[in-house]
Each structure stands twice: as structure tokens, then as C-alpha cells.
Specification:
Blueprint lengths: L1 H27 L11 E7 L12 E7 L19 E8 L18 E8 L3
Antiparallel strand pairs: 1-2, 1-3, 3-4
């Protein structure tokens, strides 16, 4: 009788551990669903001021910003200014997973620049 109870406890313990193991591996292998970034305006910054300010490899995306003014003679504006690029509107596809680091990293498969703004000269 004692031997029978010992076997039942071992089987129960084994089943319990096996159940925990299955639950743990199920949650460990769940694929995370990635949400593409939201479309919007992003600040553009010059990486190296000593290099060309129009070279896409020298222009980095900064933080998300509010839409720049239509016109602004003293700051970043969508029309009327002809200086350095200061902001762009990024339009992301459903395949996008992150904001690219630089203007030169924009890839039509993931995002496109659909509008821009410039500083005054």
C-alpha cells in the first residue's frame, strides 16, 4: 500500500512538472506582433556640421514633432523657405517596424517621405 502511494505521488509530481514545462514553453515561443510606427512629422538634424547639410547620409531623424507652419520666415516651414531640411513627414507601410536612423535609410518597402519643411536661408 505504501509502495502504491509512493508511485501515485511520483506520477502526480511528474505530471505537474510536465504541465508547468508545457505552459512555460508555450509562452516563451509566442511571436510578438509588431506594430508599425505611426505616420507623422519628424525633426531632421545634421549629424556632422562640418559635412554637407544636404547629404542624406548626414541627416538623422530626430523626435516626432507637430506639423511645421505652412510659412514661417524665422523658422521651419513647409513652403517659402529654401534653407536646410528641418522636418519630414514619414508615411509608414504595414511592414515597417521602426523609424529609420537617417534620411539615406528610408526604404520604399517600409516608409516614404511624402512632405518636407525647410529652414530660412
Amino acid at each position: 500500500m505504501k509502495n502504491l502511494l509512493s508511485k501515485i505521488n511520483k506520477v502526480g509530481l511528474f505530471a505537474f512538472v510536465l504541465g508547468l514545462l508545457l505552459i512555460g514553453t508555450q509562452s516563451a515561443f509566442k511571436v510578438a506582433k509588431l506594430t508599425p510606427p505611426a505616420d507623422g512629422w519628424f525633426e531632421v538634424t545634421v549629424i556632422d556640421p562640418m559635412q554637407s547639410h544636404s547629404d542624406p547620409t548626414n541627416l538623422a531623424f530626430g523626435t516626432r514633432i507637430d506639423e511645421p507652419d505652412e510659412t514661417n520666415e524665422e523658422g521651419c516651414a513647409r513652403t517659402g523657405n529654401t534653407g536646410d531640411l528641418c522636418a519630414v513627414f514619414l508615411d509608414f507601410t504595414v511592414s515597417a517596424t521602426a523609424v529609420p536612423a537617417k534620411i539615406s535609410d528610408v526604404n520604399a518597402t517600409y516608409e516614404s517621405i511624402t512632405d518636407d519643411a525647410q529652414q530660412p536661408l
